[in-house]
Amino acid sequence: MKRDMDLVRKLLLAIEAHPEPDGAFDVDVPGYPREQIMYHVQLLHEAGLVSAENVTTFNAFEWQVHSLTWSGHEFLDATRSDTIWRKIKTVMKDRGATLTFDLIKALAIKFTAAAIGLELKP
Predict the structure, then answer these.
(1) φ, ψ for residue 50 (rounded to 5)?
(2) DSSP of the chain
(3) For the ranges 43-52, 74-83, 95-104, which has the lowest average pLDDT?
(4) pTM of the entire structure?
């Protein structure tokens, strides 16, 4: 299964919006199949963006989320703006390639800094 960065962002937003950060919960994103969501929750956990628990049984591949991590909040803050997210996706499309997580975050920080009038030095 391919990694879908739009789904990653939507999952992080959904997790952040959960009102109770102190217990395991199920996360859903309308329009995406359950297996794809669970796979991406696993990826987010492995990347250190969320704290999650594998509750897979013989009947279903399942993950429950506990919370965003510091890194998850940082990535979400960098990509929260729909305008910035569209710019990142345009760069990805124009270059004809998928971007790594770290490159997406770096672009988001650069675009956000530019939007507020800051110039970041390399």
Answers:
(1) -135, 155
(2) ----HHHHHHHHHHHHH-S-TTS-B----TTS-HHHHHHHHHHHHHTTSEEEEE---SS---EEEEEE-HHHHHHHHHH--HHHHHHHHHHHHHHTSPPPHHHHHHHHHHHHHHHTT-----
(3) 95-104
(4) 0.86
Burial class of 75 by CB neighbour count within 10 A (0 to 12, 13 to 18, 19+): buried
The CB density around residue 24, as the number of other CB atoms within 10 Å, is 13
Task: Residue 111: name the closest of 22, 17, 103 by CA.
Answer: 103
